[in-house]
Amino acid sequence: MKHVLRFVFLTSCSFLLTVVLAQAQKGEVKGKLWDTAHKEVVSYATVAIYTAQDTTLATFRVSDEKGNFRVPNLALDTRLRIVITMTGLKTYRKEFTLSAGQPELDLGQINLEQADHMLGEVVIAAEAPPIIVRKDTLEFNANSFKTLPTALVEDLLRKLPGVQVDAEGNISVNGRSVQKILVDGKEFFGNDPKVATRNLPADMISKVQVVNDPDALRRDPDMPVSEIPQVINLKLKKGIKQGAFGKLYVGKGTKDLFEGGGIVNLFRDTTQLSVLGYANNLNGRGLGLRRSTVLGALTAVAGTPCLCGATAALP
Protein backbone atom coordinates (compact mmCIF):
# COMPACT_ATOMS: atom_id res chain seq x y z
CA MET A 1 0.00 0.00 0.00
CA LYS A 2 2.85 2.33 0.85
CA HIS A 3 4.41 1.71 -2.55
CA VAL A 4 1.14 2.52 -4.28
CA LEU A 5 0.74 5.78 -2.35
CA ARG A 6 4.33 6.69 -3.06
CA PHE A 7 3.81 6.01 -6.78
CA VAL A 8 0.66 8.15 -6.86
CA PHE A 9 2.44 10.95 -4.97
CA LEU A 10 5.45 10.96 -7.31
CA THR A 11 3.22 10.81 -10.38
CA SER A 12 1.17 13.77 -9.13
CA CYS A 13 4.29 15.81 -8.37
CA SER A 14 5.73 15.03 -11.80
CA PHE A 15 2.49 16.06 -13.49
CA LEU A 16 2.27 19.32 -11.52
CA LEU A 17 5.92 20.10 -12.23
CA THR A 18 5.33 19.53 -15.96
CA VAL A 19 2.32 21.87 -15.91
CA VAL A 20 4.23 24.58 -14.03
CA LEU A 21 7.19 24.37 -16.38
CA ALA A 22 4.92 24.48 -19.42
CA GLN A 23 3.19 27.58 -18.09
CA ALA A 24 6.45 29.24 -17.15
CA GLN A 25 8.15 28.54 -20.48
CA LYS A 26 7.88 31.32 -22.99
CA GLY A 27 9.27 31.87 -26.44
CA GLU A 28 11.01 34.72 -28.20
CA VAL A 29 11.66 36.08 -31.67
CA LYS A 30 14.69 38.07 -32.76
CA GLY A 31 16.36 39.47 -35.83
CA LYS A 32 18.18 42.40 -37.42
CA LEU A 33 16.70 45.12 -39.63
CA TRP A 34 18.42 46.34 -42.79
CA ASP A 35 17.56 49.24 -45.11
CA THR A 36 18.18 47.89 -48.62
CA ALA A 37 18.09 51.31 -50.29
CA HIS A 38 20.58 53.12 -48.06
CA LYS A 39 22.59 50.01 -47.12
CA GLU A 40 22.38 50.66 -43.40
CA VAL A 41 20.77 49.24 -40.29
CA VAL A 42 17.30 50.40 -39.26
CA SER A 43 17.31 51.82 -35.75
CA TYR A 44 14.27 52.57 -33.57
CA ALA A 45 11.79 50.70 -35.75
CA THR A 46 8.64 49.40 -34.05
CA VAL A 47 8.45 45.61 -33.73
CA ALA A 48 4.93 44.60 -32.65
CA ILE A 49 3.59 41.10 -31.95
CA TYR A 50 -0.12 40.38 -32.45
CA THR A 51 -2.21 37.25 -32.03
CA ALA A 52 -3.05 36.25 -35.58
CA GLN A 53 -6.60 35.19 -34.78
CA ASP A 54 -7.98 38.50 -33.51
CA THR A 55 -5.05 40.94 -34.15
CA THR A 56 -4.81 41.74 -30.44
CA LEU A 57 -1.52 43.42 -29.51
CA ALA A 58 0.53 41.03 -27.36
CA THR A 59 3.69 43.11 -26.89
CA PHE A 60 6.17 45.26 -28.77
CA ARG A 61 9.77 46.41 -28.77
CA VAL A 62 11.94 48.95 -30.60
CA SER A 63 15.06 47.96 -32.53
CA ASP A 64 18.34 49.20 -31.03
CA GLU A 65 20.98 51.44 -32.58
CA LYS A 66 22.47 48.46 -34.46
CA GLY A 67 19.11 47.40 -35.89
CA ASN A 68 18.81 44.34 -33.62
CA PHE A 69 15.60 43.44 -31.85
CA ARG A 70 14.50 40.70 -29.44
CA VAL A 71 10.94 40.15 -28.24
CA PRO A 72 10.78 37.72 -25.25
CA ASN A 73 7.91 36.26 -23.18
CA LEU A 74 5.81 35.14 -26.14
CA ALA A 75 3.07 32.53 -25.80
CA LEU A 76 3.72 29.03 -27.09
CA ASP A 77 1.43 27.06 -29.41
CA THR A 78 -0.35 30.25 -30.45
CA ARG A 79 -0.41 31.64 -33.97
CA LEU A 80 1.37 35.01 -33.79
CA ARG A 81 2.06 37.78 -36.28
CA ILE A 82 5.08 40.07 -36.25
CA VAL A 83 4.63 43.52 -37.77
CA ILE A 84 7.66 45.78 -38.25
CA THR A 85 7.09 49.44 -39.16
CA MET A 86 9.37 52.36 -39.82
CA THR A 87 8.58 55.72 -41.42
CA GLY A 88 9.57 55.71 -45.10
CA LEU A 89 9.92 51.90 -45.30
CA LYS A 90 7.48 49.21 -46.29
CA THR A 91 5.79 47.31 -43.47
CA TYR A 92 7.08 43.77 -42.82
CA ARG A 93 4.61 41.06 -41.71
CA LYS A 94 5.12 37.40 -40.93
CA GLU A 95 3.06 34.80 -39.08
CA PHE A 96 4.70 32.14 -36.91
CA THR A 97 4.07 29.71 -34.08
CA LEU A 98 6.45 28.90 -31.24
CA SER A 99 6.43 25.60 -29.40
CA ALA A 100 8.09 23.93 -26.43
CA GLY A 101 10.39 22.11 -28.82
CA GLN A 102 11.26 25.30 -30.72
CA PRO A 103 10.64 28.28 -28.41
CA GLU A 104 13.00 30.64 -30.27
CA LEU A 105 12.65 32.04 -33.77
CA ASP A 106 15.63 33.80 -35.34
CA LEU A 107 14.51 35.73 -38.42
CA GLY A 108 18.09 36.72 -39.23
CA GLN A 109 18.53 39.83 -41.37
CA ILE A 110 15.22 41.33 -42.46
CA ASN A 111 15.52 43.52 -45.54
CA LEU A 112 13.17 46.49 -45.50
CA GLU A 113 12.48 48.26 -48.78
CA GLN A 114 11.67 51.91 -49.38
CA ALA A 115 7.98 52.77 -49.36
CA ASP A 116 6.49 53.88 -52.66
CA HIS A 117 5.97 57.64 -52.81
CA MET A 118 3.29 57.42 -55.49
CA LEU A 119 -0.24 56.93 -54.23
CA GLY A 120 -1.49 53.53 -55.35
CA GLU A 121 -4.39 51.47 -54.14
CA VAL A 122 -5.65 52.08 -50.61
CA VAL A 123 -4.96 49.17 -48.30
CA ILE A 124 -6.57 49.02 -44.88
CA ALA A 125 -4.31 47.16 -42.47
CA ALA A 126 -5.75 45.43 -39.39
CA GLU A 127 -2.74 46.29 -37.22
CA ALA A 128 -1.50 49.76 -36.33
CA PRO A 129 2.00 50.18 -34.83
CA PRO A 130 1.71 50.88 -31.08
CA ILE A 131 4.62 53.33 -31.13
CA ILE A 132 6.40 55.37 -33.79
CA VAL A 133 9.77 57.00 -33.12
CA ARG A 134 10.67 60.01 -35.25
CA LYS A 135 13.63 62.35 -34.87
CA ASP A 136 11.91 64.73 -32.45
CA THR A 137 8.61 62.99 -31.68
CA LEU A 138 7.59 59.88 -29.76
CA GLU A 139 4.07 58.87 -30.84
CA PHE A 140 1.85 56.26 -29.17
CA ASN A 141 -1.21 54.77 -30.82
CA ALA A 142 -3.83 54.98 -28.06
CA ASN A 143 -5.91 52.10 -29.46
CA SER A 144 -3.03 49.69 -28.86
CA PHE A 145 -3.23 50.21 -25.08
CA LYS A 146 -6.51 48.91 -23.69
CA THR A 147 -8.26 50.85 -20.92
CA LEU A 148 -11.63 50.58 -19.19
CA PRO A 149 -14.60 52.42 -20.75
CA THR A 150 -14.57 54.85 -17.80
CA ALA A 151 -10.80 55.49 -17.95
CA LEU A 152 -9.38 58.99 -18.07
CA VAL A 153 -6.30 60.22 -19.93
CA GLU A 154 -4.24 59.70 -16.76
CA ASP A 155 -5.12 55.98 -16.83
CA LEU A 156 -4.05 55.78 -20.47
CA LEU A 157 -0.71 57.48 -19.76
CA ARG A 158 0.06 54.95 -17.01
CA LYS A 159 -0.03 52.17 -19.62
CA LEU A 160 2.44 53.82 -22.02
CA PRO A 161 6.02 52.50 -21.78
CA GLY A 162 8.44 55.10 -20.47
CA VAL A 163 5.65 57.29 -19.07
CA GLN A 164 5.35 57.60 -15.29
CA VAL A 165 2.45 59.17 -13.36
CA ASP A 166 2.88 59.52 -9.60
CA ALA A 167 0.17 59.62 -6.94
CA GLU A 168 -0.10 63.40 -7.23
CA GLY A 169 -0.66 63.22 -10.98
CA ASN A 170 2.77 64.55 -11.95
CA ILE A 171 3.92 63.13 -15.29
CA SER A 172 7.36 62.30 -16.60
CA VAL A 173 8.57 60.61 -19.80
CA ASN A 174 11.81 58.65 -19.58
CA GLY A 175 12.71 60.60 -16.46
CA ARG A 176 11.94 64.05 -17.91
CA SER A 177 9.04 66.02 -16.46
CA VAL A 178 5.98 67.03 -18.48
CA GLN A 179 5.11 70.68 -17.92
CA LYS A 180 2.35 71.08 -20.48
CA ILE A 181 -0.39 69.05 -22.16
CA LEU A 182 -1.91 70.16 -25.46
CA VAL A 183 -5.10 68.98 -27.13
CA ASP A 184 -4.67 68.94 -30.91
CA GLY A 185 -1.82 71.41 -30.54
CA LYS A 186 -3.71 73.88 -28.31
CA GLU A 187 -3.51 74.46 -24.58
CA PHE A 188 -6.33 72.94 -22.53
CA PHE A 189 -7.39 75.03 -19.53
CA GLY A 190 -4.15 76.90 -19.06
CA ASN A 191 -0.86 75.18 -18.26
CA ASP A 192 -1.93 72.66 -15.60
CA PRO A 193 -1.52 69.16 -17.12
CA LYS A 194 -3.66 67.53 -14.43
CA VAL A 195 -6.77 69.36 -15.60
CA ALA A 196 -6.60 67.48 -18.89
CA THR A 197 -5.36 64.11 -17.60
CA ARG A 198 -7.92 63.87 -14.80
CA ASN A 199 -10.98 65.06 -16.70
CA LEU A 200 -10.71 64.03 -20.36
CA PRO A 201 -11.90 60.49 -21.24
CA ALA A 202 -9.23 58.17 -22.60
CA ASP A 203 -11.47 56.80 -25.37
CA MET A 204 -11.50 60.15 -27.18
CA ILE A 205 -7.72 60.03 -27.76
CA SER A 206 -6.30 58.72 -31.03
CA LYS A 207 -2.58 59.37 -30.49
CA VAL A 208 -0.31 60.58 -27.69
CA GLN A 209 2.67 62.56 -28.97
CA VAL A 210 5.68 63.50 -26.83
CA VAL A 211 8.08 66.27 -27.91
CA ASN A 212 10.67 68.53 -26.31
CA ASP A 213 9.28 71.78 -24.95
CA PRO A 214 10.10 74.38 -27.66
CA ASP A 215 9.63 77.28 -25.22
CA ALA A 216 12.24 75.84 -22.84
CA LEU A 217 14.70 75.36 -25.71
CA ARG A 218 14.02 78.90 -26.89
CA ARG A 219 14.88 80.27 -23.45
CA ASP A 220 17.99 78.11 -23.07
CA PRO A 221 19.29 76.56 -26.35
CA ASP A 222 22.21 74.95 -24.47
CA MET A 223 20.01 73.08 -21.99
CA PRO A 224 21.21 69.46 -21.45
CA VAL A 225 19.01 66.88 -23.14
CA SER A 226 18.24 65.16 -19.84
CA GLU A 227 16.80 68.40 -18.43
CA ILE A 228 14.59 69.46 -21.35
CA PRO A 229 10.92 69.42 -20.21
CA GLN A 230 8.48 67.40 -22.27
CA VAL A 231 5.20 68.41 -23.87
CA ILE A 232 2.40 65.90 -24.50
CA ASN A 233 0.03 66.54 -27.38
CA LEU A 234 -3.23 64.57 -27.35
CA LYS A 235 -4.58 63.94 -30.84
CA LEU A 236 -8.35 63.52 -30.85
CA LYS A 237 -10.22 60.94 -32.87
CA LYS A 238 -11.78 62.28 -36.05
CA GLY A 239 -15.35 61.89 -34.80
CA ILE A 240 -14.60 63.93 -31.68
CA LYS A 241 -13.46 66.94 -33.71
CA GLN A 242 -16.99 67.50 -35.00
CA GLY A 243 -19.14 67.08 -31.93
CA ALA A 244 -19.81 67.66 -28.27
CA PHE A 245 -19.24 65.34 -25.34
CA GLY A 246 -18.91 65.51 -21.58
CA LYS A 247 -19.63 63.87 -18.26
CA LEU A 248 -21.48 64.71 -15.06
CA TYR A 249 -21.07 62.98 -11.73
CA VAL A 250 -22.27 63.50 -8.16
CA GLY A 251 -21.94 61.51 -4.98
CA LYS A 252 -23.04 61.82 -1.35
CA GLY A 253 -21.80 59.96 1.69
CA THR A 254 -22.22 59.91 5.43
CA LYS A 255 -21.77 63.01 7.60
CA ASP A 256 -23.07 65.21 4.75
CA LEU A 257 -19.97 64.59 2.64
CA PHE A 258 -20.44 65.22 -1.05
CA GLU A 259 -18.55 65.51 -4.31
CA GLY A 260 -19.72 66.53 -7.74
CA GLY A 261 -18.49 67.89 -11.01
CA GLY A 262 -18.81 67.90 -14.72
CA ILE A 263 -17.13 68.76 -17.99
CA VAL A 264 -18.61 69.75 -21.35
CA ASN A 265 -16.49 69.98 -24.52
CA LEU A 266 -17.45 71.32 -27.91
CA PHE A 267 -15.16 70.81 -30.90
CA ARG A 268 -15.65 72.27 -34.36
CA ASP A 269 -12.59 71.88 -36.58
CA THR A 270 -10.13 74.45 -35.19
CA THR A 271 -12.50 75.74 -32.49
CA GLN A 272 -12.50 74.20 -29.01
CA LEU A 273 -14.81 75.21 -26.16
CA SER A 274 -14.60 73.52 -22.77
CA VAL A 275 -16.49 74.15 -19.52
CA LEU A 276 -15.36 72.41 -16.35
CA GLY A 277 -16.74 72.60 -12.80
CA TYR A 278 -15.99 70.80 -9.54
CA ALA A 279 -17.16 71.02 -5.93
CA ASN A 280 -16.67 68.92 -2.78
CA ASN A 281 -16.21 69.07 0.97
CA LEU A 282 -13.60 66.30 1.00
CA ASN A 283 -10.61 68.57 0.49
CA GLY A 284 -10.20 66.84 -2.90
CA ARG A 285 -8.03 67.99 -5.78
CA GLY A 286 -10.13 67.07 -8.77
CA LEU A 287 -8.68 69.85 -10.91
CA GLY A 288 -5.13 69.70 -9.65
CA LEU A 289 -5.59 73.04 -7.86
CA ARG A 290 -5.14 73.79 -4.18
CA ARG A 291 -8.49 74.52 -2.56
CA SER A 292 -10.10 74.92 0.84
CA THR A 293 -12.52 72.43 2.37
CA VAL A 294 -15.45 73.49 0.18
CA LEU A 295 -14.67 74.99 -3.21
CA GLY A 296 -15.96 74.69 -6.72
CA ALA A 297 -13.29 75.57 -9.23
CA LEU A 298 -12.67 76.07 -12.90
CA THR A 299 -9.39 77.00 -14.55
CA ALA A 300 -10.00 79.74 -17.08
CA VAL A 301 -7.54 80.93 -19.71
CA ALA A 302 -5.80 83.22 -17.25
CA GLY A 303 -5.55 80.39 -14.71
CA THR A 304 -7.68 82.16 -12.05
CA PRO A 305 -9.77 79.86 -9.81
CA CYS A 306 -13.47 80.62 -9.91
CA LEU A 307 -16.80 78.90 -9.35
CA CYS A 308 -17.52 78.40 -13.04
CA GLY A 309 -16.17 79.48 -16.38
CA ALA A 310 -14.89 78.39 -19.75
CA THR A 311 -11.93 78.42 -22.05
CA ALA A 312 -11.93 78.54 -25.83
CA ALA A 313 -9.28 77.96 -28.47
CA LEU A 314 -10.02 79.76 -31.72
CA PRO A 315 -8.20 79.63 -35.06
Please provide a written account of the structure.
- This protein is mostly beta strands and 315 residues long.
- Among the domains are: 26-118, Immunoglobulins (Immunoglobulin-like); 241-313, no CATH class.
- The protein is 13% helix and 41% strand.
- The protein has 4 helices and 22 strands.
- The chain has helices spanning 2-24, 153-159, 193-197, 214-219; strands spanning 27-35, 40-41, 46-51, 57-62, 68-74, 79-85, 92-97, 104-112, 131-133, 137-141, 163-165, 171-173, 176-183, 186-187, 205-212, 230-236, 244-252, 258-268, 271-280, 298-299, 305-306, 311-313.
- Strands 9, 10, 11, 12, 13, 14, 15 and 16 form an 8-stranded mixed beta sheet that branches. Strands 1, 2, 5 and 8 form a 4-stranded mixed beta sheet that branches.
- A hairpin with a 2-residue loop joins strand 12 (171-173) and strand 13 (176-183).
- The longest helix is centred in the N-terminal third of the chain and has 23 residues, at 2-24.
- The chain is globular.
- The model is unreliable at 16-23 and 288-315 (pLDDT under 50).
